[in-house]
């Protein structure tokens, strides 16, 4: 049995047929070919699949797809505007805050969620904001530096 | 009670397989628009070889970095490379890329000598141009050369390969061998605070310094130094494949059992630096060192724990359980 799931994805309305057991990660990656959310652990541990649902960061792998009906879902695909990278993307790039890049989409979304609510976070608040996102390359120092640079206004919209 | 201690670890790290037998190849071709494709077999797993190998090719050819694309997606059809391991890619593939770029430069010079009707020795390849020394009117942009070469029915491809030497065995009599292509050095100092009641260790400060030959890209070095430090902290304190070995039933199942460091595990003070002593055989003096960035924090932390509480933890990781057991045994 399949259901029609309608929601807003990066500002555009989408409709897709999903099973009741499909996670949001299944819906994004397998149905809609939105592949920035990564299937890391598929267990809620690593944070590589983090997306925003109505502005809140969630693990797409632990979110049942049908629960986002009518909601706004944001992924890294929606970060850039008019072909221009988001300040966080530019800061991550310039600070070498991605090595292999697997955790990067989740890091970017976690950082966006943090700065949307708290544009001037302390270092401790930044660390807390990304502490649910594992990075095996250990880029935490550079990720924090990149977020600090954005918070300091070095990367304007 | 919380007790503090400081520990030091030093290390050396070779580039590539011990004893050689560890070649890499590279190919660079001039395209019709005057840009270049660099083909090699080294896989970028995040260490940044796609950047560094292009840097080396751009430097040797004296063309802008953005004019070189790096193609390494197929190790079957691409030039041979034994792989991304043992901190070997900068050293081996870097040398192969420099050789390929020099070979292509020679071929461009030979082509231009025919075109300009001069000796190849008088042709200069520099500043994204090809020209005859001292004759300003005899000059072509690389874009013009790329178009003329390729649309003129020619194909200029530079090839290069490098190996530090054939594979070799230990001398059975003396145990001696020429084991290494390059040897990098490193040092880590850790300051920890150990809670003797809970066995929990906090890393307060971690300093890592590496001698890298010559840094090809300081930002990449910084990322690897800090990233390696975070891995090393995990090896030293939390990461354990079989925490309750020998009973495999208790082997780790997921990332809640196999605990790697998060941003919250960053020591409040982290310092990284490099020392540069160019290596005679390294590409532009570089050595391979990156793997060592993860090797030193673990031993430095264990040494710091000993300095703090006077007992040795001899197995990784130094979990609270092991620390409390060691303290109990020491006071029994």
Q: For the largest beta sheet of chain A, what order do the strands appear in spatially? A: 2-1-5-3-4
Rg of chain B over CA atoms, rounded to whole Å, is 25 Å
Number of domains of chain A: 2
Q: Pairing-aware structural class of the strands and helices of chain B?
A: alpha+beta
Looking at the structure, the CATH topology of the largest domain in chain B is Aldehyde Oxidoreductase, domain 4
Task: State the strand order across the main sheet of chain B.
Answer: 1-9-10-11
- Spans of chain A of 5+ residues with little confidence (pLDDT < 50)? none
Quaternary structure:
heterodimer
Mean pLDDT across the residues of chain A is 97
What's the level 1 CATH class of the largest domain in chain B? Alpha Beta
Q: Summarize the amount of helix of chain B as a percent range.
A: 25-40%
Number of strands of chain B: 11
- What distance separates the N and C termini of chain A? 44 Å
Describe the structure in brief.
The complex is a heterodimer of chains A (157) and B (332). Chain A is an alpha+beta fold.
Set out the fold topology.
The complex is a heterodimer of chains A (157) and B (332).
Chain A: E1 2-9, E2 12-19, H1 24-31, E3 50-53, E4 56-59, E5 72-74, H2 87-94, H3 104-117, H4 123-130, H5 140-151
Parallel strand pairs in A: 1-5
Antiparallel strand pairs in A: 1-2, 3-4, 3-5
Helix pairs in contact in A: 2-5, 3-4
Chain B: E1 2-14, E2 24-30, E3 36-40, H1 49-61, E4 68-71, H2 89-116, E5 123-126, E6 129-132, E7 135-141, H3 142-151, E8 157-162, E9 183-195, E10 201-211, H4 218-237, E11 269-275, H5 297-309, H6 320-331
Parallel strand pairs in B: 3-4, 10-11
Antiparallel strand pairs in B: 1-9, 2-3, 2-8, 5-6, 6-7, 9-10
């Amino acid at each position: 049995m399949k259901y029609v799931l309608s929601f807003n994805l990066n500002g555009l309305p989408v409709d897709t047929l999903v099973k009741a057991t499909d996670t949001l990660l299944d819906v994004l990656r397998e149905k809609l070919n939105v592949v920035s959310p990564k299937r890391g652990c598929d267990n809620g541990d690593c944070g590589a699949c983090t997306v925003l649902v109505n502005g809140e960061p969630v693990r797409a792998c632990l979110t049942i797809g049908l629960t986002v009906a009518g909601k706004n879902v944001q992924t890294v695909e929606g970060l850039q505007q008019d072909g221009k990278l988001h300040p966080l993307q530019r800061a991550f790039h310039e600070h070498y805050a991605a090595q292999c890049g697997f955790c990067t989409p989740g890091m970017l979304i976690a950082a966006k969620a943090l700065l949307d609510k708290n544009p001037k976070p302390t270092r401790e608040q930044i660390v807390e904001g990304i502490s649910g996102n594992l990075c095996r390359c250990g880029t935490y120092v550079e990720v924090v530096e990149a977020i600090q640079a954005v918070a300091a206004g070095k990367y304007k919209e | 009670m919380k007790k503090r201690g400081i520990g030091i670890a030093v290390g050396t790290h070779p580039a590539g397989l011990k004893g050689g037998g560890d070649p890499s190849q590279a190919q660079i071709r001039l395209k019709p628009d005057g840009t270049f494709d660099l083909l090699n077999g080294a896989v970028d797993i995040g260490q940044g070889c796609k950047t560094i190998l292009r840097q080396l090719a751009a430097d040797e050819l004296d063309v802008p970095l953005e004019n070189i694309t790096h193609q390494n997606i197929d190790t079957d059809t691409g030039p041979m490379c034994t792989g991304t391991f043992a901190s070997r890619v900068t050293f081996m593939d870097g040398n192969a890329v420099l050789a390929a770029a020099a070979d292509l430069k020679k071929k461009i010079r030979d082509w231009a000598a025919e075109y300009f009707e001069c000796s190849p020795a008088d042709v200069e390849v520099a500043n994204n141009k090809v020209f005859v020394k001292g004759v300003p009117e005899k000059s072509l942009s690389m874009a013009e050369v790329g178009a003329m070469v390729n649309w003129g029915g020619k194909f200029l491809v530079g090839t290069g390969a490098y190996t530090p030497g054939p594979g070799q065995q230990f001398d059975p009599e003396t145990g001696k061998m020429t084991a290494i292509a390059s040897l990098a050095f490193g040092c880590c100092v850790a300051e920890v605070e150990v809670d003797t009641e809970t066995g929990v260790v906090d890393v307060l400060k971690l300093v890592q310094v590496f001698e890298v030959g010559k840094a090809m890209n300081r930002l990449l070095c910084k990322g690897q130094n800090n990233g390696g430090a975070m891995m090393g902290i995990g090896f030293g304190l939390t990461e354990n494949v079989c925490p309750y070995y020998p009973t495999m039933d208790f082997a780790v199942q997921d990332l809640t059992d196999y605990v790697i460091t998060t941003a919250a595990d960053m020591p409040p003070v982290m310092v990284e630096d490099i020392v540069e002593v160019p290596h005679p055989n390294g590409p532009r003096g570089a050595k391979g060192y990156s793997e060592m960035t993860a090797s030193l924090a673990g031993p430095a932390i264990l040494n710091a724990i000993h300095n703090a509480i006077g007992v040795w933890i001899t197995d990784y990781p130094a979990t609270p359980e092991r620390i409390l057991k060691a303290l109990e045994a020491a006071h029994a």
